[in-house]
Amino acid sequence: MSTHPYLRAYLAGVFVPTLLLPVILTGFIVARLVIGVPFPIERIVVFPIALVPAGWGLWNMLWLASHQHTHLAVGLHGAILPALLAPSGALLAHCLGIVTFGAASLTAFNAISVPYALIAVGFCFGVAVYYLVWKYIIGFLNAVLSIA
User: Fold this and answer.
1) pLDDT, tens digit, 9 for 90 and up, residues 77-112
2) Could you tell me which of 139, 93, 136 has the C-alpha nearest to residue 114?
3) DSSP character at residue 53
4) What's the structural domain count of the chain?
5) What's the domain range around 98?
6) DSSP code string of 81-128
7) Strand order in 99-101's β-sheet?
8) Sequence-ordered list of residues with C-beta below 8 angstroms from that of 58, at least 6 positions apart, any chain
9) 101 in Cβ contact with 94 (< 8 Å)
10) pTM of the entire structure?
11) Is the dihedral of CA 95, 97, 103, 104 positive or negative?
């Protein structure tokens, strides 16, 4: 199967976030409507639903295009993606007025204050999760679709 390798790479890349985002959306809806979280958390869902699946697909296409030159493993390539998504998501949230940056913490919705140390730990955990997902799931899909 040698036709349309970039289309197959895009489809392999969007597979995981497309499956997970409805689950995350359900969690946000339950938190807002059932539990009664008092601030508009649905505003945070816009960025992941709109950009993350497309970003993963394009990132996998970039891996396919650059793999011959860089020989970078798909897991390491995937672990770089949070370093692009997290700052762009934070910038978008700041521009929309959802997040404000303080000296020692980030404040969301003028209600929740998260220290930067906790954000750094969460970011490191996210990089590890991305590495494992890209290595085992996206790598498997790339092999099944004959692009790896």
Assistant:
1) 999 999 998 998 889 889 988 899 999 999 988 888
2) 93
3) H
4) 1
5) 5-144
6) THHHHHHHHHHHHHHTTSEEE-SSEEEETTTEEEEHHHHHHHHHHHHH
7) 99-101, 105-108, 112-115
8) 10, 13
9) yes
10) 0.86
11) negative
Average pLDDT of span 27-31? 84
Give the CA dihedral 131, 133, 135, 136, nearest 10 degrees. Answer: 150
Q: The tokens of 121 are what?
A: 């730990």
The pLDDT of residue 51 is: 81
Mapped onto helix, strand or coil, the DSSP state of residue 17 is helix
Give the mean pLDDT of the chain: 89
As to burial, measured by CB atoms within 10 angstroms (0-12 exposed, 13-18 middle, 19+ buried), residue 32 is: middle
